Amino acid sequence: MSNRRHAANDISGRPVTSLDWDKLRVFHAVxxxxxxxxxxxxxxxxxxxxxxxxxxxxxxxxxxLFHRHARGLILTEQGEVLHRAVRxxxxxxxxxxxxxxxxxxxxxxxxxxxxxxxxxxxxxxxRIGEFLEIYPEIAMTLIVDxxxxxxxxxxxxxxxxxxxxxxxxxxxxxxxxxxxxxxAAPSYLKKHxxxxxxxxxxxxxxxxxxxxxxxxxxxSNWLLMQGxxxxxxxxxxxxxxxxxxxxxAVQSGLGLAALPDYLVPRGSNxxxxxxxxxxxxxxxYFVYPEALRHSARVTxxxxxxxxxxxxxxx
Length: 314
Hints:
Blueprint: E1 5-9, E2 15-20, H1 21-33, H2 36-43, H3 47-61, E3 66-69, E4 72-75, H4 77-104, E5 109-115, H5 117-134, E6 138-144, E7 158-161, E8 170-178, E9 180-184, H6 186-192, E10 207-209, E11 238-240, H7 243-251, E12 257-260, E13 271-273, E14 282-289, H8 296-311
Parallel strand pairs: 5-6, 5-7, 10-11
Antiparallel strand pairs: 1-2, 3-4, 7-14, 8-14, 9-12, 9-13
Helix pairs in contact: 1-2, 1-3, 1-4, 2-3
């Protein structure tokens, strides 16, 4: 740290001529350690040098910062105020230093990503191997959950969400539009025939989301209501609480279902039926906290996803 000095007010609000960053650094170490001796060991300074720095800071602020007694040091009320401010400042500086170092080095370290069960299990997971081959020093953890995990307490570093975040401290980048169409397995169509119109759905089994107070998106069971009147609805042949379960049920020949196109890549054995019928579309967002704006791990993963999406034919 430099010895740059700044004008400020003391704890009581009276103006003081300067605050010395070296003295604040020593104060932070003493407040954390609880003694001049332990702080001196951390800072590689003698006990007397630490004591002089604290005395000088107290004199410049015109207030005692510690109660001194035989068992050690206790912060005064004014010392607590200064400690909270200094701890936040030095915490931010440490975080900035780490991010700057990371931006200069090869991306490495832990990266926790959360996304929906369907997207994470079916589209993202098969591509993670390629990403880790490029960046072997990144330790990836994928959390699949249709609920939105909170990024602020660092349950995850990155979220890929099907709704735009509303929190002001989150950065978002739109990744792609997710579209839904109706699919069935060849074995099912051989047995039950191919529906030609939405009215034909009355004669087919439909697999849908189970009743859920937090559906993956509004009107998620839209297929049940296609072609019906007077607010009526069809009865499903099977219900399950995530899109991967729906996909597997359709794949097994259980019935028709509305599936996101990313679950059914080119070359899949599932067949799109009623091709003119398209469900609601969703926007997928890449979301991360402001604190990770300059993280190399986040940047390379975002760029990798954008490239993979551009290469994918949905």
